[in-house]
Amino acid sequence: MDLYDFGLIGLAVMGENLALNIERHGFSLSLYNWTPQEIDAFVQGKGKGKKVHGSHSIEELVSTLKRPRKIMLMVKAGKPVDDFIERLIPHLDQGDVIIDGGNSHFLDTIRRVRLVEEKGLLYIGTGVSGGEEGALNGPSIMPGGSEKAWPLVKPVFQAIAAKVEDGTPCCEWVGSDGAGHFVKMVHNGIEYGDMQMIAESYALLRFGLGMSPDNIAGLFDTWNAGELDSYLIGITRDILKRKDEETGKPMVDVILDTAGQKGTGRWTSLAALNLGAPASTIAEAVFARAMSSIKEERVEASQRLKGPDLVFQGDPKEFAEKIRQALYAAKICSYAQGFQLLRAAALEYGWKLNYGQIALMWRGGCIIRARFLGKIKEAFDKNPDLPNLLLDNYFASTMDQNQDAWRKTVSKAVELGIPVPALSSALAFYDGYRSAVLPAGLLQAQRDYFGAHTYERVDKPRGQYFHTNWTGKGGTTASTSYNA
């Protein structure tokens, strides 16, 4: 009986396209899906004449694979992953590898690595970014988990991954237990921020300057030839060109303005809150989607709540350029927050993350791929311990060059009553980060006043805590739960 190189469970669009990608790069596959007819349809259709085998049971799948077996799950995150792990374990031998290629939560991956390794098996939780097209033609792949498993899957993963200009694959080992899925989660959080900031820039151009979707598409095409060159700017240009076949209207005008989400942006925001990392722009992008979902309330509110009745006055071309500069500056801050969150997680979970390598993995194949990720890689190559991107010379000088336009863009948006939560929160992050003194001393005094939470003093060494009897009635007893 022929034995196959790689096993894959789950033949939805991503799984199907990954299977075709793997086979195209010279690896044979044994496939399994919970509905046998889907397996048969694939083998006799898109997989016809290719080195693929359709298995009709878990037992058959395992028995048709070369050892050590490598089986990738492309199933819905959550319970389905746990169910398949449970079904696979009794049929596997020591050293076999289970791979979760879905958008699993990193804490689930940490738990699963321990569970699988206790059975003598190996486990990888890997982010796969790039959507349907990426899965077929080359995604960004972010694997983490059992490090002994990496040499076993590296030839497959690096063969099928997207490549940057010099041929380097957008795939490298990220770190232990849940590191791969955490990096993918942060990728998705940055994606939320990117998309929201592009949408806000569109709103300023469309509703502030009165530009048509076609004209904005042309402007975005120009932007995409410069420092904003990215996948998301490119597809936004294409979207704005498209006309609805039924009405002839711009497609963007017939799509209801309620944005969905699958949870990874929310996970990123919660992780930032748990780790005390200021990822405010990502959180605002999540909240913006939540705001969009209350469409009926917004329609009613639009009839009852008044805003400014102003029309833009000035040079439209000049303001459009300010919007471009604002978008680039805010984008840098969003990525800076994402990498700051990665650093906080590395400290918390003991991961040895290579931030320049992560930037390289995001340089191609994934949704947030962009030209300036090369600048991020350069920054971390120069200083692997860089605490924040904004402290790199290139990014510091870029912020200095663009901040005046950024401030005027946000100010004009406020004047016109056009909401720009991501662009403005990124500016607040920048101003907060560059401030040697923040009003948090007052906050700490308030906490000490009502809860005896103590405070540190500017004229004493860090780590010494003090309490004031603010009312004369509180005494000297202080809380032991101090949190900065």
Summarize the structure.
This protein is α/β, with parallel strands linked by helices. The chain has helices at 13-24, 36-44, 58-63, 79-88, 106-118, 131-137, 150-160, 179-208, 213-223, 231-241, 251-254, 264-275, 280-293, 295-304, 316-349, 355-361, 373-382, 393-416, 421-433, 440-451; strands at residues 6-9, 29-32, 52-55, 70-73, 97-100, 122-129, 140-145, 175-176. The chain has 20 helices and 8 strands.
Order of helices and strands: EHEHEHEHEHEHEHEHHHHHHHHHHHHH
- Oligomer state equals single chain
Principal-axis shape: globular
Number of DSSP helical runs: 20
Main beta-sheet strand count, sense and barrel state: 8 strands, mixed
Sheet with the most strands: spatial strand order: 3-2-1-4-5-6-7-8
Would you tell me the overall average pLDDT?
95
Low confidence ranges = none
Amount of beta strand: 5-15%
User: How does the helix and strand content classify structurally?
Assistant: alpha/beta
Percent of residues in helical segments?
A: 40-55%
Rg, Cα atoms, Å: 25 Å
Number of strands: 8
Our measurement of the CA-to-CA distance between the termini, rounded to an integer number of angstroms, reads 64 Å
